[in-house]
Amino acid sequence: MGHQVVIFDFSLIRGLWETRVKKNKERQRKEKERLEKSSLEKIKQEWNFVLECQKKGIPQSKYLKNGFVDTNEKIFDSYGKTPPVQKRRALLDEANKEKNKFIFQLSGEQWTEFPDSLKEQTYLKEWHVNNTSIQTIPGYIALFQDLRVLELSKNQINHLPVEIGCLKNLKVLNVSFNNLSSVPPELGDCENLEKLDLSGNMEITELPFELSNLKQVTVMDMSANKFYSIPICVLRMSNLQWLDVSSNNLKELPEDIDRLDQLQTLLLQKNRLTYLPRALVNMTKLSLLVVSGDDLTEIPTDVCESTTGLKFISLKDSPVETIVCEDTEEIIESQREREQIEKQFMKAYIEDLKERDSVPSYTTKVLFSLQL
Predict the structure, then answer these.
(1) Which SMART domains match (predicted)?
(2) At 330, is the pLDDT very low, low, confident or very high (cuts 50, 70, 90)?
(3) What is the distance between the alpha carbons of residues 75 and 53, in angstroms, rounded to a whole number?
(4) What are φ and ψ of residue 132, in 5° steps?
(5) Which residues are registered as beta bridge partners of 196?
(6) Where exactly are the structural domains of the chain?
(7) Cα separation of 84 and 79, whole Å?
């Protein structure tokens, strides 16, 4: 039998999660500052160095000077032959160094544009650019024919250049939490793309039909935007396994949604759906379906009583303003930041669901009521 888990007042759980995430980050920041100011790290480093010297049989006279530990690692090189462990470590470091030659990383709000030297590094295979003030992707990106991963989340990018269609070997494109309002049709030329993340841009309302060419995409995240329907091009992504359309303006699902016959996870919470189409029953590989139960008035019985092992989760998401709790001391002003925290919560929640060996064979309703 299928199982339905209904959680009422989901916003309370989310509020507690937001608070926990913020407090944990604050604790990590304070602990880092404390360690930086204390001598514990230095003592630990010296102690580990002494242990390493003892393992290698290096006499104290080589690393102790006037009672203080000399942590210069050149001691290892100048004393005896390099042991097998050290050789393996050196080989690993060399391999990582070689790998990092093909990865470009950039972070920090002080960056408003890409460095000029980047255009000369056309051999790069990955770009990881996060949390900057960069608004534009340069057109010379077309020269990076070996690019496999384009990770550009949490910047200020307001449009994608048409040259992005020249990246024939691109497998991962993440432009989440930027300022995009549209996607160029040329993206459909990236036929080897496997993962596309457009979440958190808040303003995207439609996708070009040309994206129908992306037959290799298995993961599609278009959450936290302004889609009123699932684009036709998405329904033509025949290998799609994970689809997140949460936090949009969907009022209904397409009647032919069962065209996505490889789909395993479908996230629809925080939309305006009033009913679910019977076509969902035909999606035999669908194992997790998450919706918001606030407005749903019609759900096919076969969805709730599926024999395919489908986990059907209906979440009640009451307005957060109605919750008064001293644990939620500060309401997050930025909607993007709230969406990021909610995605972290949902990721943890879904992982927990997948790890469960079994789920209740009955409907569980939980109503939280706090008066503080």
Answers:
(1) LRR_BAC (SM00364), LRR_TYP (SM00369)
(2) very low
(3) 9
(4) -115, 180
(5) 173, 220
(6) 23-75, 98-318
(7) 14
